[in-house]
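Reopening: structure tokens for the magnesium ion complex, inputs below.
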Amino acid sequence: MIEIENLYKVFRTEEVETVALNGVSMSVADGEFVAVMGPSGCGKSTLLNILGLLDNPTDGRYRLAGEEVGSLRERQRTRIRRGRIGFVFQSFNLIDELNVEENVELPLRYLGVPARERRQRVTEMLRRMGISHRAQHYPQQLSGGQQQRVAIARAVIGRPQLILADEPTGNLDSRNGIEVMELLSELNREGTTIVMVTHSQRDAAYAQRTVNLFDGQIVESLEDRL
Ligand code: ADP
Ligand code: MG
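Re-run output (same inputs, fresh job):
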């Protein structure tokens, strides 16, 4: 599914140059659930953004589902992103002006799914996520746990092959955090590949494998570095 080789990402501003990724190679098989751990600033979000084609690497190779995608133009990146990848962020990133139903429906509009099918799929998804009774509510009327369930519904409504989650429980209390992790785990058991960035040992335990990142590089263990 994912193969990256010697990935570099350098951020340059007028005064400073930050090497956020310093030669990262890894692969993720179809159907795997991988956790990426590491201290703040070690490059986790940068890696996830590149995997999600939200950003391009400065150097290195990236193959997604067999296709070289490391240096695509914005239009091609958007097409692949919409068709294949679902995102879940710590901050939920819902659109405040749209209600729950409309937020979840949005990816299907981008994919050109006809109206009748959109309604049916959204209704089903809200039921599955346990938020049917909030269909007409707006994000600011929901609890954090409900907002994250809406975000997950939106991430998976287009049936992506890959879910990328950046600290998905970071803004949730422990009960809601566990519920969100169980949802992700269930989606993985149904076949969706997941790469999740997390600070939490509890969340990482849901994954089949953990990759440790430190200072932009993959390391065996974080123990003696923290
Ligand atoms: P993490 O998610 O592990 O906390 P990030 O991937 O967000 O870390 O950041 C890695 C490093 O790259 C940090 O030093 C951060 O300040 C820097 N960085 C991230 N994004 C940018 C950006 N857009 N411009 C400049 N520096 C950035
Ligand atoms: Mg981050």
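The first helix runs from residue 44 to 51. The two ends are 31 Å apart (CA to CA). Marking as resolved unless the reporter disagrees.
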